[in-house]
Amino acid sequence: MQRIKHHITRIASAAEARVWLTALVAALVAYFLFELTGEVLEGETRAFDEGVLLALRDPTDPALPIGPTWLTKMVVDITALGGVTVLTLIVTLVVVYLTLRRKYRTALFVTGSILGGWALSSAIKIGIARPRPEVVQHLVEVTDMSFPSGHAMLSAITYLTLGAMLSRIEEQPSLRYFFPLVAVVLTLIIGLSRIYLGVHYPTDVLGGWAAGTVWACGSWFVARWMLGRR
Questions:
Q1: Are strands 57-58 and 61-65 parallel, antiparallel or unpaired?
Q2: How many beta carbons lie within 10 A of that of residue 77, not counting itself?
Q3: Cis link prior to 148 (omega < 30° from 0)?
Q4: How many CB atoms lie within 10 A of CB 90?
Q5: How far apart are CA 81 and CA 137, in angstroms?
Q6: Is the dihedral of CA 146, 147, 150, 156 positive or negative?
Q7: Would you give per-residue pLDDT tens digits along the chain (230 residues)?
């Protein structure tokens, strides 16, 4: 009995440590986002942003990206993973999966959390109203504003939230870590693809990652309160 009590105490301590760590990460990222947004609005990041975009292009012709042709095609495919169409499909499939597993509250929470994050992304874009980069040619068609990167923010919101929610319902420790890891990798490569394609400044992507991470951390806290501890 004493051994069982000790084991439960260790689990509770580890859970509390994760809560505080998540809160610290969210606070630091939120502060970074606030400072970054101020720098962007003041135009302090333009030299850095344009320098990175030009470094990814042929010095003799800024319309041509560095690297072989197949690399550009691969990056275009990767960036599609952060598009609304693909994200909607993935969210729908995950919600159906959760419903089939009778995780109705989790399915409802995932839907509301991600839709709320998407709405926030659109609101920030309209509020900041930063034009798209003009220093290099865009390799894919874009129409809306630039800051924060919608692909970076939406992929962070969607994949990180799904990774956290799926890890909650898994019993195997390896799978509980696998889902968040996949979410982080997908979020990173999607954001980097936007810079390579010339449709976003690096600070747009950093802002998208930061905003999406803060939203995902907030969703995790709300999930603990609404859905109960795992």
A1: antiparallel
A2: 10
A3: yes
A4: 16
A5: 22
A6: positive
A7: 555 444 444 544 555 666 767 778 888 888 998 999 998 888 888 999 999 999 999 888 888 888 888 999 999 999 999 988 898 998 899 889 888 988 888 888 888 888 888 888 888 888 888 888 888 888 888 887 888 888 899 898 888 878 877 776 667 777 778 888 888 999 999 999 999 998 999 999 999 999 988 888 887 777 776 665 54
Residues paired with residue 57 on neighbouring β-strands, in sequence order: 65
Candidates 87, 77, 216, 201; CA nearest to 148 is: 201
203, two tokens: 């600070």
Helix ranges restricted to H, the chain: 2-42, 46-55, 69-79, 84-100, 104-128, 150-169, 173-196, 202-227
Q: How far apart are CA 118 and CA 216, in angstroms?
A: 12
> Are residues 183 and 91 in contact, defined by beta-carbon separation less than 8 angstroms?
no
Which residues contact residue 208 at a Cβ distance below 8 angstroms, ignoring those fewer than 6 apart? 121, 148, 149, 150, 151, 152, 153, 154, 156, 191, 200
